[in-house]
Structure formats: C-alpha cells, structure tokens
C-alpha cells in the first residue's frame, strides 16, 4: 500500500461475522477482512464469550492484514482513523474492577417482557425487550445479586471501544438503544432518568453513573492506546495513537452506509436480524410497542421496526441444499450456491404456490413471540418445488418486518420515497431487493457497497471525524462527499410480486397460530 495514502478502518461485530473495511480518503474500499462466529444458547441465554470477542477481532484484523499485504505488497497502515460498531442493545455489566458480572445477554434474548412493559408505562415511551435498560430492570426485578455491584453498563461496541481507548463512551445512535435520548440535548432523557430512579430503589449507584457518556458523530472519542493496539493486534504491527470515532450500533452504521441520515430518508438492514429505519420530520402520534424510537449518529429521531429473525432459517436451508448437492459430487462455491438458490425464487409462483414458512429461530416481539420454532408448511394442493420453497423462505424473511412497517405507512401515513438496502440479503443481485420491494410496496435501492454494510459505514464515520472539526454536518458530508451522484440500483415494486406477497402474508398471519402451538409444546433442550 502506498505509505502516503491516508486510510480509515471500520470494524463491525455482527451476529454471524466480524467484518473489517479499510477505505481511503476518497471512501473507496482498499481491502476487507472477516471472521465467522455464532452466538450460542446457554441456560436459556443467547450469548458470546468476551474471549470470543477478543479472538474474533484479532482473527478479523489478521485476515485484513493478510489481504492488504497480498494486494499491495506492504503491511497494513491505519493513518487517519478507526471506528468500531456492533449489534445494538443487550446487556454487558461490569463491576468497579472491570470484571463481567453476568454472561453477555445479546439483543436476541426475549426474557425481559415484564421489565419492558413496566418501563414503557413509566416512561410513556416504548422500551423494547432487547434494550439494555430492559435487561437491567429485569435483573433487578428478579433480584439478581450481581446488580448491587454494577459500575458500568454498555453495549458490545462500547465494550470494544473501551478496550481500545480506555474511554467509556458511546455514539448517540447506539446509546439510543440503551436508554431513551432527548432529541434536543442529544443525551439521555432526564425525565425518564428520574422516573427510573423512582423504580429502582437503593443499589448504591445511579443510572447516570453507570451508563456510557453519549457522543455525536464527529466528537472526540479518544485514541488507540498501547493496550488497545495489543488487544486488536498482538503482533505489534498496529501502532497506538490512531484517533477513534464514537462507537456506533449496526443501526447507525447502516444509516451511514446508505446515506439515510437526513429527514425522509430510510434504509433496511437485512442479515441475521432485519430492521428498517425512517428519519422522521415530525413525532409519531402515539407510542407503538412495535416501533422503536432511536436516532441517527448525529442525533436525529428515527422510527425503527426491528425484527429478531431474518436470514437464519434461510441460511440453514441453503446449507442443507448444498449438502444434498455434495452427495452427487457438486460442490459449488458458497456465493454461487446462494446466487443459484436465490435466483430460483424469481421463478416461483407469486404467492409461493401454497407454501408458508416461519423463520423464528428466536422470539419475535413484533408479532408477540417470546421464543421461536422455525417451520415449513404447505397446503395439500400446494406446488412444492425448489422455486416456491426459496420464494417462501425469502418472503418469510420479510414478513415480520412488513407487519411492523404497516404501522408507519398505513396508521401514521409516513411517506417513504425509497428505502436503501444493505446487508447479506442483498448480495445476490436483484433478488432480495425485488422481493423486499414487493413485500413493503416501496422502491428499494441497493448501493454497490451494500455487501460491506456496517463495516464500511463505521469507516465512513471514522473518516468524517476530521470534517466535523471543520464544521461540516454529517448529512452534508455524506450527501456531498461520499454519495454525490450515487443513487444506487433502484427497483420499484412489481405488481404481480406485490399481489403474490399480499396473499402470502395473509397465509403467514394465519400460520402464526401453528407457531404459537410449536413454541408452547416443542420444548428446546437448551432451555428456550
């Protein structure tokens, strides 16, 4: 790599992959790195170990370093800045000595219904089950002994940033998934803080004292320490002193990666989970339990529909079909296998020929499920073939999102000109995009960078750090310097696809009664 080239590194810890994106000052991808990992269900809790976090980050960084050296014949250099992002929400609680008090509880857990309901009532604000404050209050309601020792509560991105810099801070977008944010002050809502104080009793700590400091995009978030450099790269090649941008959640990096930070813009991030976000011009008329209120990385209010389940069931079927092909000696590359099977969905009948699938690996709060059991069903007269199967699986991945989005578009009359998509669902060109446009009945555009997703988005926020010092807003920076002249490949809803999905979603809603019976009667050996 030319030594004079300024680079910016973004790392995102997703549900199934840790990804790294190295970009230059023109925001072009120079190299990428990745490491596959998976959460696990232990004693009824979806979790990752902190040792896995460290080793996964190191493996991802090492992969990036190898790719840089192979491509440019020179070692990796991070000159301009670095940023960390991760899946939002969850519960990472530490004591004064920095020791973890309880296993990491990820966003995927739906064990906090009692707390979420009580907090939503106390705040007059929707608090979803996966939010950090819901996990904390549920631990208090259960009388978990570790709560009395709490000194710091953060998200996964906040934890990694803390290890890299020593600073306990969080970007406002990620913080908005821990506790509600005041849209004026762009920090935690003081009235709701006071309401929580009235609920919690005396534990010897205050909420203000245990939550991370809130920063907006471009704020000073510290520099890479010697310990932080060793945490990420034990070989010693990475040197300390690199400035870091505020750590963000995958929602915020998705907004950055799709230029969806200005009013009336929106995006869909589709991978293990799926969420759609629309930057609002005015507040919603009332509180909806299916709609989260979060913020952009610069603090603008955003309506968000978040669904816990998207591609996990789809991925399992692709793996199974790949195994079947291998029995006959065919071993297609992973990307080719996905492309072929996704493209088969376009040959299916508009309504999937009488098939219906439910992709709930875990609970799905949008539809009221505390746990999940994936299943596939078909009508006796249904046409059970590969094309209809793949189409049903892809439609199922969008079904819960559709139910939530109808609240915004039908009840609140929120206008959406176009949604920008990113994430794994969009890697096969034209398929996920076309079917999602039909499902939501709104145009969907996909940028060339869609497959990089949040790693590229947090790299952009690291690059923005210097522009903020010059007084440029994040909205202007992305529109004028990153995405100027790049609207992405846009697909409008196909009328026949839309009619087919309308029929499918009614079948899907009816099949949720079967999902309820499965959850109640098919007991998991792992405790969920």
Describe how the helices and strands are arranged:
Blueprint: E1 7-13, E2 17-24, E3 29-36, E4 40-42, E5 45-47, H1 50-72, E6 81-86, E7 92-94, H2 113-123, H3 132-141, E8 152-154, H4 156-165, E9 169-171, H5 172-175, H6 190-200, H7 207-210, E10 213-215, H8 226-232, E11 248-249, H9 250-257, E12 266-270, E13 274-279, E14 292-295, E15 301-307, H10 312-326, H11 334-345, E16 355-358, E17 375-378, H12 386-411, E18 419-422, H13 431-440, E19 444-446, H14 454-469, H15 474-482, E20 489-491, H16 495-521
User: What is the percentage of strand-forming residues?
Assistant: 15-25%
CATH superfamily of the largest domain: ATPase, nucleotide binding domain
**What is the CATH third-level topology name of the largest domain?**
Nucleotidyltransferase, domain 5
Using the alpha-carbon principal axes, give the shape.
Answer: globular
Helix content: 25-40%
Query: In the CATH hierarchy, what is the architecture of the largest domain at level 2?
Result: 2-Layer Sandwich
Structural class: alpha/beta
Low-pLDDT sequence parts:
none
Largest sheet: 7 strands, mixed
The CATH class of the largest domain: Alpha Beta
Number of strands: 20
Widest sheet, order of strands: 14-15-13-12-18-19-20
Number of separate domains: 2
């Amino acid at each position: 790599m030319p030594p004079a080239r300024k680079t910016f590194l973004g790392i995102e810890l997703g549900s199934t992959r840790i990804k790294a994106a190295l970009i230059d000052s023109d925001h072009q991808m120079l190299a990428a790195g990745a490491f596959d990992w998976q959460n696990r269900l232990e004693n009824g809790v979806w979790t990752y170990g902190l040792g896995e976090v460290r080793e996964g980050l190191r493996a991802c960084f090492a992969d990036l370093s190898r790719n840089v050296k192979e491509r440019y014949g020179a070692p990796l250099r991070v000159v301009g800045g670095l940023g960390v992002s991760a899946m939002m929400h969850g519960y990472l609680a530490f004591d004064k000595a920095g020791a973890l008090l309880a296993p990491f509880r990820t966003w995927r857990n739906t064990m906090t219904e009692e707390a979420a309901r009580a907090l939503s009532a106390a705040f007059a604000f929707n608090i979803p089950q996966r939010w950090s404050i819901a996990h904390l209050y549920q631990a208090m309601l259960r009388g978990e002994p570790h709560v009395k020792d709490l000194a710091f509560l953060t998200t996964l991105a906040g934890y990694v940033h803390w290890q890299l810099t020593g600073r306990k801070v969080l970007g406002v977008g990620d913080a908005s998934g821990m506790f509600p944010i005041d849209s004026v002050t762009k920090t935690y809502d003081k009235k709701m803080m006071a309401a929580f104080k009235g609920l919690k009793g005396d534990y010897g700590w205050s909420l203000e004292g245990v939550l991370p400091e809130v920063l907006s995009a471009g704020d000073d978030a510290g520099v890479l320490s010697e310990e932080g450099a060793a945490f990420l790269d034990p070989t010693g090649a990475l040197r300390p002193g690199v400035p870091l941008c505020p750590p963000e959640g995958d929602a915020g990096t998705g907004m950055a990666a799709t230029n969806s930070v200005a009013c009336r813009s929106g995006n869909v991030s589709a991978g293990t989970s799926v969420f759609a976000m629309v930057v609002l011009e005015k507040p919603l008329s009332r509180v909806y339990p299916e709609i989260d209120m979060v913020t952009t990385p610069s603090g603008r209010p955003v309506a968000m529909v978040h669904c816990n389940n998207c591609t996990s069931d789809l991925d399992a079927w692709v793996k199974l079909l790949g195994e079947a092909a291998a029995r006959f000696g065919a071993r297609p590359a992973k990307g080719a296998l996905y492309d072929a099977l996704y493209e088969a969905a376009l040959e299916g009948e508009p309504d999937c020929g009488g098939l219906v699938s439910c992709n709930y690996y875990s609970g799905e709060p949008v539809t009221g499920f505390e746990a999940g059991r994936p299943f596939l069903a078909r009508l006796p007269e249904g046409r059970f073939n590969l094309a209809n199967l793949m189409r049903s699986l892809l439609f199922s991945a969008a079904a819960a999102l559709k139910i939530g989005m109808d609240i915004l578009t039908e009840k609140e009359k929120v206008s959406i000109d176009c949604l920008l998509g990113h994430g794994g669902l969009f890697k096969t060109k034209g398929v996920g995009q076309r079917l999602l446009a039909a499902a939501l009945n709104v145009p969907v555009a996909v940028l060339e960078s869609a497959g990089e997703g949040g790693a590229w988005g947090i790299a952009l926020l690291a690059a923005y750090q210097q522009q903020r010092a010059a007084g440029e807003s994040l909205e202007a920076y992305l529109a004028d310097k990153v995405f100027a002249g790049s609207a992405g490949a846009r697909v409008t809803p196909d009328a026949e696809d839309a009619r087919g999905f309308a029929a499918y979603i009614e079948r899907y809603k009816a099949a949720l009664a079967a999902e309820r019976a499965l959850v109640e009667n098919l007991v998991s050996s792992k405790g969920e």
